[in-house]
Specification:
This protein is of the alpha+beta class. It is built from 25 helices and 26 strands. It has 5 domains: 150 residues, Rossmann fold (3-Layer(aba) Sandwich); 193 residues, Beta Polymerase, domain 2; 153 residues, Alpha-Beta Plaits, CATH 3.30.70; 67 residues, Phosphorylase Kinase, domain 1, CATH 3.30.200.20; 97 residues, Orthogonal Bundle (Transferase(Phosphotransferase), domain 1), CATH 1.10.510. This is Protein kinase domain-containing protein.
Length: 766
Amino acid sequence: MDLASVVPPGARVLEIGATDGVLARALERSGLTSRYLGLVPPEHLAAVRSDVGDDLAHRVHPLTSPDQAIRNSTDVLVLRGRWARALWAHRDLHHVGQVVVERSTGAQDVERRAAALAGRTIGRLRDQGHVVCDGIRLDVYEVPQHREPAPRTYFSPVWGPAGLAERLKEAGLRYAVLRWFETLPDIAPGEDLDVLVADDDTDALRALLESEPGVLPVDLYSASGLDHSDFQGAAYYPPPLATGLLDRAVVHTSGFLVPAPEDHLRSLAYHAVYHKGPSSGFPSVLLGRTDPDPEHDYPAEVARLAAPLGASTMRTLEDVDDYLAAVGWRPPLDALRRFAPSNPWIEAALGTSTGVPREDSELTVFLVRRRTLATLPTADVLDELEHVGFDVVEVIELDDEARARTARSLRGGNWGQGPFPVSGGDPVVVVAALHHDPDPPGPDLQGRYPHLTNAEVVVAKQRVRRAIEARTDGDGAFNPIHSSDNEEEAWEYLEVAVPDAVERIRADVDERRAELRTDVSVLRTLSRGRRARVEIVAGSDGPVVRKTFARGFLRFMEREVWAMRELSGLVDAVPPVLDSGPNWFTCPFYDDVLGPLDTPRSPRLVPLPVLRQMVVVLRRLHELGYDLVDAKPQNFVVDRALGLRIVDFEFMYRYEGDPPPLERSATFVDVAPGFAPDRPVGDMSYDKRWLPYTGMPLAVLLDGSEQEQRSHRRRHRARSLVGVPRVRATGLARRAYGAARGAKGTILWRYTLWARWRARSAGRSS
C-alpha cells in the first residue's frame, strides 16, 4: 500500500516539516498535488523546491510558525520528522480527516508512538495501518470526531493575499476586510484578516478560502451572525450597520474591498470598545485600568481615523461608547450582554444601569419562532407558558417589517440553528407575560445565563421545546422560542419589536400589578404564588384570610369560590366564603397547630389521627362526586378550636358521572390527559405528594387498620433513619463527582496547553 492509496481523490494535503521532496513527487505521480501545500523549515526551502521541480516549487513555502502544524485548514495532514510531536495535540486536530505520520528511530520514534497511543486511547485517532512511500514509512490515522465550521479559517500561501484579492474580485462576493489593511497585500507574521461578508455570500467565501490547504488565518463574520460565522453567538456588528458597511465598501490599492472612511472609524471604534474593552488600550472611567500591552494601539488608530472626519476626541472607553451612541452604532442591550462575559468594561457598564424598579412580579417577553407555529399553534404555546404561571398580557403577530427588524436587532441578530439540526426561523409572534412569583436562578443556571432573573423562564421554554419534540423527530428538532432574560431586557425587546404597543402594554402591566396589591391592612403574607397571593388582613370581626388572584388566572378563583360555596355546608372541613370581589375572596383565619410538614432535614409524617381525618374528608368529597385534583397534606390545617380544615380548591373538579374508585382518582394519582381543564405543576404521583408524609402505601392509607398503619410508619421511620447517612453519603458522592469533573476539566486543559507547547517545540532543534 502506498501513500496515493490512502489519500482520497481531490483531498487537500498539507505536509509539515519536510526536508525533501519525496512525498510531494509521489503525490504528483498519482495526480494528487493540485491541492497540495508543503511547509518546510526555512533553511531547507531552496533545497526542497529544487527537489520537487519547477511544476511544484510554487506549492512549497516556508514554515513560519510552529502553530501552523495544528492551526490550519486541510483534509490530510502529513507530519514529517520531529513534527510528529503535533500528534500530542490531537484535541486540536478535529478539523482534519486524516493524519499521516512519518516513522523515525530512537527517542523521536518512541515519542511518536506514545503520542499516537494517547490519541487512540481516548478515541481521537483511529489506526488505519501504514504505508511505505519511496522508502519512507508512514502511519495513517483517521480523525473520527470532526468539528463544526468556525469563524476562524485559513487560506493558502500559494495564492498569498494578492492572489486572494484577485479570486474574491472574480467571484463577485460582497465582503470587506475590516481593519489593519493599510499594508496589504503584505500581512505581518501573526496577523490575520478580519472579513465581514454578506449572508448570501458567506458559504461561497468560506468555500473559496478552503478550496486549498491553508495556514494564513481569516476570521469570517457574516452580516447577521449566521451559525459558524458569528461572534460569541451574536452578529459581529448590528446587522443593519453591517449591511450598510458592505454596501459602501471601497476598493483598496491592494485590490481588497475595505470599509469607507466613516465606516472604518465607526467599525474600528466599535471593535475597540465592545469586543476588546480594556485590552484595546483605552483607559476607562469605570474600571480605572487598561491593558498595558495591547495587541494594537487602538487609541492612536481611532484618533488618526477621526481627525480628517472631524469626529470628537475619544480618550476613554466611555468616550468611544458615547460617540458610537451618538452616531447610531451602539449595539442593543441583549448583544452587549452576550459580549459581557469576555469584556469587563461591559460587565461594569451594565452593572451601573439603573434598569427598572424591582417589582414582586416580573415581565418577560417570549419570541415565538416561525417553524414553531407549523408544529404547535399559538394557543398551545400560551397554554405551556400559563402552566408555569405566566400571566399573558398581550400576544402580537409581527408583520413582515417588524419580523425583519426584530430578527436584525435582537438575539445578536443570530437566529440560526445553534445546537439543533435545523433553525427555528425568525420571530413571528411576541408574547408579553408577567410572572407573579419569579424564582431566582440557582448557581448552575446563573452560570449558564448570567443575566437571568427568573428560573421559571427556562422551565417555560423547556415545556414548549418538549411539546415540539413530541411532534417532531430528532432530525427535525429546533429551538422554538426565545425570551428576554430579565425585565429590563423585556422592555427593550418590546421597543424593538412592537414600539407602537409599548405604552399600552406598560399600562396593562401596571394595572395587573396594582390589582394584586391589597387595598386593606395586611397583617401578614402567607404566600406569594404563581396565580395568587394569600394574606392575613384585618376584617370587621378580626383577622381573615384574603386570596387575591392575578388577572390571567381568575378561572382558578371562580372554581375555588364555587367549590367552597357548594361544599361548606355539606363538609365541615370546607371553610365558607366570607366575602368576594372581582379578583379576591376572604375566608376565616384558622390558628393552625399542625405546623409545617416540610423541614430542612426531611419531610415530617402527619400525626396518624390527623392523617386518618384527612382521608375521611377526601372520601366524603369523593362520595359527593368531587375531586380536589391538587390534594396533598399541605392543603390541610388543624385549627386549635375547630379542628381539621381543608384549603385550596383552585383545581376542584366535579365528575359528570360516577367517579372512579378513590384509589384511582386524581386525588392520589396523576391526572390523565384531558381529565380537567388545568393541571397542577410538578409530579402528582402518590409517591411524591403523599408517601413522604404518610409513611405507608396508598392501599394501607385508604383501607388498612390503625395497627397496620402504625406498623408501616415504624418501618418508614426506620428506613428514613438508615437513609439519612445514605443521603449524606450520596451528597458527598455528588460533590466528589462534581469535584472530579472539575479536576478532569483542569487536567484536560493543562494537557492541552502542554500538548500545544510540545507540538510547537518541533520548531526548535531537538
